Amino acid sequence: MNTINFQTFVNSFQNRLEPPVRQHLKNVYATLMMTCVSASAGVYVDMFTRFQAGFLSAIVGAGLMLMLIATPDNGKNTNLRLGYLLGFGLTSGMSMGPLLEYVSVVDPSIIITALLGTTLVFVCFSAAAMLAERGSWLFLGGTLMTLFTSMSLMTLVNLFMQSHFLYQAHLYLVLMLMCGFVLFDTQLIIEKRRMGSKDFVQHALELFIDFIGMFRRLVIILTQKVGTKPPSQA
């Protein structure tokens, strides 16, 4: 029975996605995995070496991301753009180092649980987007961007109000927002490939931002469940 169900899933996947799209998604997810490995290396560097860049790593990471976005894919600069992406992954991991170091003292299992939970949610939402009707989740784009803007304003307001309720609401709402972005971004990547875009580096960047956004907030939520408040805000 399990074999039949798996074969049905594979057949559905193959029927809905053309071979060029499937190959593109393989490139995207392979690049995403490389970026996650780079982020893991960044966490290691921050936690277990003397090199702790702190806030500087976030600034450098933002610069690398902007350089990647500002460098259009011309088919010849893939290695350069991939370097920008891996550098962004490295600095993203380094910027999360202080949070994960604190959590490792509270309960190291939280990190593993958050990673497994994030991976499971990411895979499920990605599969749902791939197997859904063509473009059925693209309508979320406007709603997601509106919510993202609202969450940014909520963060700004809470800098002055210091409301625990607003902080908690922001934490859970952004987690749900990231899940929505996984659905939207996955289908958008598929449609972009159908229209001729082969920029798997840019597409991997979009999914990496979704993944690490979910992971960060899930770590904070799980840490709060054991009765402690992480030093890093969402």
From TrEMBL:
The chain crosses the membrane at residues 51-70, 82-103, 109-130, 137-157, 169-190. GO terms for biological process: cellular response to unfolded protein; negative regulation of apoptotic signaling pathway; negative regulation of RNA splicing. Its main location: membrane. One of its GO terms (molecular function) is enzyme binding. One of its GO terms (cellular component) is mitochondrial membrane. It comes from the Eukaryota. It is found in: Membrane. It is a multi-pass membrane protein. Keywords: Membrane, Transmembrane, Transmembrane helix. Belongs to the BI1 family. This is Bax inhibitor-1-like protein. The lineage of its organism: Eukaryota, Metazoa, Ecdysozoa, Arthropoda, Hexapoda.
